[in-house]
């Protein structure tokens, strides 16, 4: 009996869609992007360069230092969040994606950026994560503006 209850709870969590966020609920910071030092740079430009990672893609104005560019930011549920837009023409919420989202939601560690939710409506497919003001670990390690001793690096 307890095994059946456990399976039911597991399936219930698998189909939970509370992580899905309506993109219109996010108040974007006037299309500004925050860089690794926490200052902002304009993200709207006629000539944009793309910066793509395995999970997301973002654009930065040409001339913006790539090593300092982090991501678009906005306000959601009273806090600053990072918006990682994903360029997709279509999006299907498959079992594989649900499984990955469940795994990410289950992760909890002070050294990991917390997953807030995701926007799944095309053309605004995006990952919404906790905002890290110093940028990614790579940004911190290569930034000359953030003093780190060589033992820490």
Automatic annotation (TrEMBL):
GO annotation (BP), single: receptor guanylyl cyclase signaling pathway
Annotated GO CC locations: plasma membrane
Gene: LOC121400707
Keywords assigned: cGMP biosynthesis, Lyase, Nucleotide-binding
E.C. numbers: 4.6.1.2
PROSITE patterns named among the record's database cross-references: PROTEIN_KINASE_DOM (PS50011)
GO molecular function: adenylate cyclase activity; ATP binding; guanylate cyclase activity; peptide receptor activity; protein kinase activity
Superkingdom of source: Eukaryota
Gene3D superfamilies named among the record's database cross-references: Transferase(Phosphotransferase) domain 1 (1.10.510.10)
Domain Protein kinase: 26-153
Protein name, entry field: guanylate cyclase
